[in-house]
Amino acid sequence: MIKEVLNVSDEKMKKSIELLKKELQSLKAGRANPSILDKLMVDYYGTPTHIAQLATISTPDSRTLVIQPWDKKAIKDIEKAIQKSDLGMNPNNDGQVIRLSVPELTEETRKNLVKVVKKHGEECKVAVRSIRRDANEKLKVLKKDNSHSEDDIKKTEDEIQKVTDNFIKEIDKIVETKEKEIMSV
Questions:
Q1: Tens of pLDDT along 63-84?
Q2: What span, in angstroms and rounded, lies between the C-alpha atoms of 111 and 108?
């Protein structure tokens, strides 16, 4: 039971890190990255559909995204969804594919993006610490039940703290890497 608390906490913390990576990946960092379209929903025959389910998205160069729909009739719907989105890009439709030019980031935009990255990093740290707190609460309950020795509980608390510290360091590295990527474009 005591190891289960540690394992569950570790799993939850890993999921928090994965979520952070996914969030940061979808940020527009001045480079063409298909993941910036991940949240884009297209009204396809009356059904909101992810763009990745309607088209192939490729990056022929560092500043261009090419969206090639499998159903050519969907090209207008995709174009409309891009125009309505907050991407700040103007789609170029040639009837076969849609080209998106990723604009050069201004210094102010870069600084704002870095703030967003840091905010996501802080939110992830809060989530990890919350998972640690929940695990420690479960350990306190086990301690009151006298189902485990105090030494075992203390060792597990220490392990949970080490795991938490490692995940916090990993979050810092992820945020720092994304910050460098944004500022170096």
A1: 788 888 888 888 888 888 888 8
A2: 5
